[in-house]
Amino acid sequence: MIYLDYAATTPCDTAVLQEMLPYFSEVFGNPNSLHKFGMDAKDALDIARSRIANAINSNFNEIIFTSGATESTNISVIRTMNALQKSGKNRFLTLPTEHKATLMVANYLKMNGFDVEFLEVNREGILELETLENALSEQTGMLSVCHINNETGTMQDIRKIIEVCHKYGVLVHVDATQSLGKTKIDVRDFDIDFLSASGHKVYAPKGIGILFCKKANMKYLRVPKANPEVEFGIRAGTVPVALCVGMGKAVEIANKDIDKNWNHAVELRKLFIDGIKSQLDEIYINGSEKSNYPGIINMSFRGCEGEALMMEAKRIAVSSGSACTSNVLSISHVLDAMKVPADIAQSSLRISIGKDTTAADMEIAVEDLVNATKKLRNMSPVWDMIKAGIDVDSVFKR
Prior knowledge:
Elements: E1 2-3, H1 14-20, H2 22-25, H3 36-56, E2 63-66, H4 69-85, E3 91-94, H5 100-111, E4 115-118, H6 129-135, E5 140-146, H7 158-167, E6 171-175, H8 187-190, E7 194-198, E8 209-213, H9 218-221, H10 241-256, H11 258-277, E9 283-285, E10 296-301, H12 306-312, E11 316-317, E12 319-320, E13 322-325, E14 328-331, H13 333-337, H14 342-345, E15 348-352, H15 359-378, H16 381-387, H17 393-396
Parallel strand pairs: 1-11, 3-4, 3-5, 5-6, 6-7
Antiparallel strand pairs: 2-8, 7-8, 9-10, 10-15, 12-15, 13-14
Helix pairs in contact: 1-10, 3-10, 4-5, 11-15
């Protein structure tokens, strides 16, 4: 079976695994211990932290290791908003297209008395600067925005978004889960306040992530009476050295190969899209044509249901943009926020490309999806309605 779901998770790189192995059984000390075993572990932790700091052009002491991007987002957003609330900044902004982890944080803040607004995006999933500027006020404390959307690959203009926010004194948290190691991130150049990312999206192990916090903002995150020797007083517990070593190595490798992997994704994206569109009609690409990460393709096969396509195309592993639960069809919240017609949104699949994906893999994916689409359309009354020119969008509206 061909794996084309790299936006969900990646396998651990062999070089990363080899780098990690000694820290499970040989260099096993606690990095907070003062003896040689602890000092050796601390040295490895420092190297891992430095590798990540170098990759995003941050200071060594601005990188906090966490269990993943979800924890990083929770720490940075909730603690910062709690601190800012004391000075009257009670307003939090985000987008309806964000990852569900961020949406859960936003809903938590809303339930706890914060003023939360979900800013509209355009039909490509882009936050327009005019929309952002109109939403900012003296009471706005923070904006959380995803750099590369995990479902569509749409890329936000982080630099301009941050410029607008900082003009109003608003802090910005960037969800870089899909962008770390895939596109150049310079936290100094972009002037990022907080950044979250997970290791398992860049061929590191699961269970490890990072939080970048600009030094001036550390005051918002520190826990009173916490041990400053453990992740700068921001996160408690024994640091998993082996996992940190793995993430440091993975980020270093990914950052070195960004251009090569980007161009590889561009080539395979074109091969796949051209192959599908040359054999099928009523095919739609969801997201931005001009501002996107090429390794994520969100494609709708109108007249089919996404999960049915997944089950019928048996040689490939991809994700569906729709979910059928208790006989009620629901569509992706991302595509819904982009105002993609419901009958198109419910037929979407996410195909995500990895560094080891080959042209042959994509050709098999094209063959499987073309055959599956033709089979399902032959059985679909919806497809008959589409061919007859009937407006079927209302059939799927909630």
